[in-house]
């Protein structure tokens, strides 16, 4: 019988993202939208929608993993700004967006949500982006 408490990725997150790495607390997933370097941390804790619902140790680990990811994104992309947010208005499952922003990107300085349509990576660009992220994340 399946474990009713096992982590399951929300179908929308599964459809919109690509697995980059699997850390202690979170899955690290790239949003399949080539307009922005956009990575999401998803805590592998069933039934959690908000950060405060995590145990204290998990909250600290989420912050550590977010800092690790943020540092890698800044080193890889040298952004004007790194947007980090946990909204959950469309997908209730707790996930934390890390979006690299440039002054010349399509929506700057507005939020990325609701403006334009996602442009999926082509096969080569997706492979190169995931590989670059994996290398940067393993170094840190």
Describe this structure as you would to a colleague:
This protein is an alpha+beta fold and 140 residues long. The protein has one domain (11-139): HIT family, subunit A, CATH 3.30.428.10. It contains 3 helices and 5 strands; from the N terminus they run αβββαββα. It has helices at 11-16, 56-77, 123-139; strands at residues 17-22, 26-31, 38-43, 81-85, 96-101. A 5-stranded antiparallel sheet has the order 1-2-3-5-4. The radius of gyration is 15 Å and the shape is globular. The mean pLDDT is 93.
Fraction of residues in helix: 25-40%
CATH superfamily label: HIT-like
Q: Count all strands and give the number.
A: 5
Order of helices and strands: HEEEHEEH
Give the SSE layout.
Elements: H1 11-16, E1 17-22, E2 26-31, E3 38-43, H2 56-77, E4 81-85, E5 96-101, H3 123-139
Antiparallel strand pairs: 1-2, 2-3, 3-5, 4-5
Helix pairs in contact: 2-3
Q: Summarize this, please?
A:
This protein is an alpha+beta fold and 140 residues long.
Question: Which key features would you list for this structure?
Answer:
single chain, 140 residues, HIT family, subunit A, 5-stranded antiparallel beta sheet, 3 helices, 5 strands, globular
